[in-house]
Amino acid sequence: MGVSSNFDFLTAQDERLARLGALAERYFFDDAPSALIKLRQLAEFLAKEVAARHGLLPSNNVTFDEVLRTLRLHAILPREIADLLFNLKRLGNEAVHEDVGTAANALFALKIARSAAVWFHQSYGGKPNFKAGPFIPPRPPVDATAALAAELEELRKQVHASSDEAAKALLAVRDADEARLKALSEVEAHKQDKEFWEAYAAETEAGLRKTDAALKAAQAAAKAAPPQQLDLLAQLANRQAQQVEFDEATTRLLIDEQLRAAGWTVDTPTLRYAAGTRPQPGQKIAIAEWPTDSGPVDYALFIDGHCVGVIEAKRGIADAPGRLGQAKRYARDVRLAAGETMPGSPWMQGLDRFRVPFLFVTNGRPYVKQFETKSGIWFWDARPTGGNPRALPEWFSPQDLSERLDQTENFDALAERELGVTGFRKRPVAHEIGITIHVEPNEAPIAEVVTEKHEQPIQILVGAIFLVAPGSQRQEFASPARPNIGQVLGHTLNHLGDDEDIAQMPAILQLLLDFPFL
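RE: above sequence
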């Protein structure tokens, strides 16, 4: 019995990584939690390998969390990839500690793990032009739900419709192997399959225990390498992250995760209009595929039974603000019962009558300032005082939208106000905050931020954006991945303090962006 998987290309980097992917695909058939655990292992090894390649892995015994934190603070790991690894870590942790995880979870994890692995191979394997081809669906579980069976069948169709002969051959091999097992008696088939994969898993685990030497060697090589070489490596990794692609189903699940993190109840496979899901008092819910006269909208947002927003969410959106027209059609044509409309509906904009106030467009990608129209979330308030469309770095929480509904001013005219992470708040004026940038040769700058409520300054690693030696002229430093300052500080502040700290982030960011050295 041979082993071929969607992760075979990783063999060129490290056979152990390819084996973890192959094991996860096998466990998908009858042991989803084990599949999730193997994919968490794969994600952790990828993160440690990246850290070692940049000389940032002090010990092989550091935790997955510590590695991700280090990579984030040094602006090495692109946000797109960090989000994938975080999802794999979360699902794997739940499988380890609670023995939970469905086949649908495992399929989602397999697809995003493969995307992260492709990025790693392109960025750190010297293969920037590598094309992975379509995802080959694993052997379907015997108890697959109708939705999962449909998704697996759609993946098969994508393989057959592609021009990738290698992918078609791998799918044919899998079909032949499944047919061979079906031809055997159930007992014999189970015995052969079990013996083979138990031996394969034991060999893989034995190999993983030998990774320390490889990681130490990569760490030592990075420490000896010129800084410019590491900077170029990080820049390549950042460019490749912009090319990561997902199918429609995976994109929707990633958006589910983003909305869930913002406080919405959401689950596209189950919380759908067609499945009978309806808004209820007390709920803050995103219902998928809500009907409109222009076709179903991807999500309708409800707070306490009232529709407050619609979301146009598509993988292929390259120009997010350009799709606001579709979101406007949904907001005009959405079908709502009398009790599901907001007070004040409809809102007039010229000849248009909008039944919901808030419109969103997203392609599921994290917000990156340099690619503002191609990433993040685009938002428009359809009320006459709502202002112009703009990009958001993250989703509004239900509280954010509730507070915004209470605002009646013209938002474009409010120069003294800014949107905080947890709501619409007064923006602190510049003299309330003091910022000092500390720089040392060959070190990333540190921002010391002092607010009225802090006697001791908050120290924030800004990221190596510009290197300025004391007393010298400003000189550009080729930074790892040219990080978005807001992204770096946003993560940092979330870990530093309470809501009052975070609420001051917009003013802090603006001062940093305006700081002469940055």
